[in-house]
Amino acid sequence: MPGPGQGQIGRGKGFRTSHPGAAVSSDPDYAGRNPADVTVDVNDNDSPGIAVSPLDGVTTERGGFFNLTVALQTQPTAAVILTLVSTDTTEGAVSPALLTFTPRDWNVARVVTVTGVNDDVDDDDQAYTIQVDNPTTSDPVYAALNPADVRVVNLDDDTAGIIVSAISGNTSEISAQATNAMPSASR
Fold first, then answer.
1. pTM of this prediction?
2. Which of 69, 130, 142, 163 holds its CA 20 to 30 A away from the CA of 57?
């Protein structure tokens, strides 16, 4: 459970009245005394939200990755489900792609790994986005939120070229032929 100053529901203002009742004490000056009721005005300064960090990242075609965290800023009234999607799965992948926060575990940040994908194409560095879709929830406050997306660049590791290797067979100046297989280094 959150400590003092950490919001439960985070839905505005509330009032609480304390009725302490008669004191129980072995001291005759306090035993049986009933203190006045106390009313407290509680101003909740927590705002519902979905925190995503960092908002920029770099992956590589050699499997380079980075982690991002996703967290709710206040306790929801119902489960909040978030779906994360790569806008270009030929450049980057996200795992896990589905996050569920409940009213019991809402305050535990989730770690998501974004990993670069190799494409064997000399296509320079490629930008893509990890979209955090709008929440699926019956909590009307969280259902109305639009979480931030994460901008990513996948660093290219390919260089176009031709690989030349030793030929097979002998050659001579008298119309002899030899073969040479020339595989492409990259498309």
1. 0.67
2. 142
